[in-house]
Design a protein that fits this description.
Elements (H helix, E strand, L loop, with lengths): L2 E4 L6 H7 L5 E4 L3 E3 L4 E3 L5 E11 L4 E5 L5 E8 L4 E5 L5 E3 L2 E3 L4 E5 L5 E3 L2 E3 L2 E2 L9 E7 L1 E2 L2 E3 L2 E3 L4 E5 L3 E2 L2 E3 L2 E3 L12 E5 L8 E3 L2 E2 L3 E5 L5 E3 L2 E3 L3 E5 L5 E3 L2 E3 L4 E5 L5 E3 L2 E3 L4 E5 L5 E3 L2 E3 L3 E5 L5 E8 L3 E5 L5 E6 L3
Parallel strand pairs: 1-2, 2-5, 3-5, 4-6, 5-7, 6-8, 7-9, 7-10, 8-11, 9-12, 10-13, 11-15, 12-17, 13-18, 15-19, 16-20, 17-21, 18-22, 19-23, 21-24, 22-25, 23-26, 24-27, 25-28, 26-29, 27-30, 28-31, 29-32, 30-33, 31-34, 32-35, 33-36, 34-37, 35-38, 36-39, 37-39, 38-40, 39-41
Antiparallel strand pairs: 14-15
């Protein structure tokens, strides 16, 4: 294992990538490096890092493309590429302590498995089109595969999605991230999502302890996932469940402009959440056979709007809601503690 030092006046980055061997580290000495050729890491077990924080810029579609396995990127600033800041196709990639911003449409695109993405600042990766004025699209992290850990990142000011997946995503963790998209106060014209997992086969993922502030905090379309200990604040619809057999527990949902939790499919378990100050509904249930237990539902216009059948609604605490439970279809089991009793 050896260390290769890259600078504008010494060894070039492309030469270092061509000559490095598995286990080597490539250290960029300069604060700023204009990379004229594509940066492709196609060997395994390579580390590319800045000596402090090194900026990579260039005129091309992708800033850094990782094809090899067990590659580490750290202390890099990836800015100004036409489409994607960093594209990962290999497995077991680590990206840490990087700044990824002002790339045209995607901060990161992850296609491999078992990536670790941590302690990065990912922001303003939006495509303004040829006019340069009207934003057309923008996503912080787009991912698919399995076994990813997306933890402790700041993912801010994207037009469409903070973290997005529309291909099968399994056994992955999204934890301790702070996410806020653009247009928070222009919701009638633009819907965006902090975390959107939209493929119906996405399962066994954990979404934990994130801070979520956009039009929709989480939209989930796959089964058998865990949404736990997240803090939703001033979303229009904090969380949308479009799938079954998920667990939503120990979350804090505060000041939803419309709905705290929207349940569109059955057989989900909603337990021990705090849902407060939603302007319309704390929880809406549009499906059957869900379990709503041990939640604190307070200061909403309506605590629970129940449109399904055979939903178990029990042992919840209701305080200061205009209405605790409104129901359009009978035959639901309801037990609760109301401040009006």
């Amino acid at each position: 294992m050896s260390t290769l030092y890259v600078s504008r006046v010494g060894l070039g980055l492309q030469e270092a990538l061509d000559t490095c061997q598995s286990g080597d580290s490539i250290v960029i000495v300069d604060r700023y490096l204009d990379t004229e050729e594509p940066v492709v890491i196609d060997k395994d077990n390579i580390t590319l890092e800045g000596k402090t924080v090194s900026m990579l810029v260039g005129i091309r579609a992708i800033g850094i493309r990782v094809v090899g396995n067990q590659v580490t990127l750290k202390n890099l600033e990836v800015k100004g590429f036409d489409d994607i800041g960093i594209q990962i196709e290999g497995n077991e990639t680590v990206v840490e302590h990087c700044y990824i911003y002002h790339n045209g449409g995607h901060g990161m695109m992850i296609k491999g498995n078992d990536s670790i993405i941590r302690y990065n600042s990912i922001y303003l990766n939006n495509d303004a089109g040829s006019s340069g004025f009207k934003i057309l699209r923008g996503t912080g992290i787009s991912l698919e595969g399995e076994g990813h850990k997306i933890n402790n990142n700041l993912c801010m000011f994207h037009y469409d999605y903070g973290i997005y997946s529309n291909s099968p995503l399994t056994y992955s963790t999204i934890k301790n991230n702070s996410i806020k998209c653009l247009n928070q106060h222009d919701w009638e014209y633009k819907k965006n999502y902090d975390i959107a997992i939209l493929h119906s086969e996405s399962s066994h993922n954990c979404i934990q302890a994130n801070h979520l502030y956009s039009y929709t905090g989480i939209r989930l379309a796959g089964p058998e996932n865990l949404i736990e200990r997240n803090q939703f604040s001033e979303n229009k619809i904090a969380c949308i469940l479009s799938s079954s057999h998920n667990q939503v527990m120990h979350n804090m949902i505060i000041k939803a402009n419309q709905i705290g939790l929207c349940i569109k499919k059955g057989k989900n378990h909603i337990t021990k959440n705090v849902i407060s100050k939603s302007k319309m509904y704390g929880i809406t249930i549009e499906a059957d056979d869900n379990v709503i237990q041990w939640n604190l539902i307070t200061s909403n216009n309506s605590g629970i709007q129940n449109e399904g059948i055979h939903n178990v609604i029990e042992n919840n605490s209701f305080y200061n809601n205009e209405q605790d439970i409104t129901e359009e279809i009978p035959n639901n089991k309801q037990k609760g503690v109301s401040d009006n009793e």
